[in-house]
Amino acid sequence: MCDHTFVAITFGPCDSCTLNKPLMNIYLQNEPVNYCSLCVEMMACQGLTQGENLASLKAESEGLKLRLEEERAKLHDVELHQAAEKVEPLGQLVTKARRSLKGHGNKVLCTDWCRDKRRLVSSSQVTEHAVTMPCTWVMACAYAPSGCAIACGGLDNKCSVYPLSLDKNENLSAKKKSVAMHTNYLSACSFTNSDMQILTSSGDGTCALWDVESGQLLQSFHGHSADVLSLDLAPSETGNTFVSGGCDKKANVWDMRSGQNIQSFETHESDINSVKYYPSGDAFATGSDDATCRLYDLRADREVAIYSKESIIFGASSVDFSISGRLLFAGYNDYTINVWDVLKGTRVSILFGHENRVSTVRVSPDGTAFCSGSWDHTLRVRTGRYLSLSDTHTHTHTHTHSLT
Amino acid sequence: MSGSSNIVAMKKIVQQLRFEANINRVKVSQAAAELQQFCMQNALQDPLLTGVSSSTNPFRTQKLCSFV
Description:
The complex is a heterodimer of chains A (404) and B (68). With 404 residues, chain A is mostly beta strands. Chain A contains three helices and 30 strands. In chain A, strand 12 (197-202) and strand 13 (206-211) form a beta hairpin. The model of chain A is unreliable at 125-136 and 388-404 (pLDDT under 50). Chain B is an all-alpha fold and 68 residues long. Chain B has a domain at 2-45: G Protein Gi Gamma 2 (Irregular). Chain B has helices spanning 4-21, 28-42, 47-50. Chain B is elongated, with a radius of gyration of 26 Å. The mean pLDDT of chain B is 76. At the A-B interface, helix 1, helix 2, strand 4, strand 18 and strand 29 of A face helix 1, helix 2 and helix 3 of B.
């Protein structure tokens, strides 16, 4: 058997034959192992059943992909917006800016609401106030469900948990606990239903579930072929799954306990920057650099709506639903926020006010407001309501709202 | 020249596709009806659709924000 040349990161005893050789880092049943190239060969051949080789596997994979397309197409009997024809259309969205928070010294990259609805944590290129991190880019942050801690991370490849304290003089960095370790930047993090576990996604193409107390890796999720940019946990009633989206244009749904990739969707034409579950847990929306947002239904196993307009040519960086799921808020790199009617597929409002890219949009847990963070160093909190069509005759508001 | 890592990767892809091909799916019309029903059921509780009165609005202007 011939060896092929590969980049060896490590040299040492092989986990299988124990001889000292250049090692390949591979995953067997989600466990990382280091095998020498000879043992990788032997293991690969053992895994094949009678008559299987690379060519036959390729043929089977093409056949399965075709079959999947056919199965999905058979059930595609109607478009979502056609099914929603009888739904009363929404009138105008009237929003009111409630807060403009200018505390950051730099671009706002990520925000999260606390469950008590009053507090926001946000991260930026250099966090100045709550927590100082040794690295320059904090790309992800999340509130613990109890509101007593926050998790954040970014270019340091780690996710760290900081307990929050009411004592302003306390040095929070001293109490920081490193939980997750990836081999590339941390793009997103989220606590699961307790303060005890954190789910992370990374530029190294994987997602991972960690125990906060011990820092132990509980489960890893492999399936993306490029950076994973975003993740979202299913609403708790619907079980232990989460969705991730990345630079390989795919959105994957995972089982948290087994690490299995349950469903995969690949219809975007560019990087998926943001994924968010529909409030019922039966669908999720994505925002992408291809300037569209899309809705994927999990039970129909396909894309069911595209939210796009010819005039929108900049990527969508962040999406979130209102609590009934009727509205989809999406922040774009052209500094605007577009609000979409999820069922009808139409845009119902466009919001101006930011002076740079909108990097994050989050609806508060009780649904009363949404917050947008931007590279213009501000966070803006807005509330709003829809006028029914009969109301619009008595108001002089236009669709676009510029906020001072 | 060996393609062992290719075979390992290919085998994983085929196993994943077999798994995905076997899941149960419903028609889009049924899925759409359920999405719609959820929206309608929760529309009245959605403050961004119905608005909040000033007395209950947690973001009314008098409050101040402070950094934690």
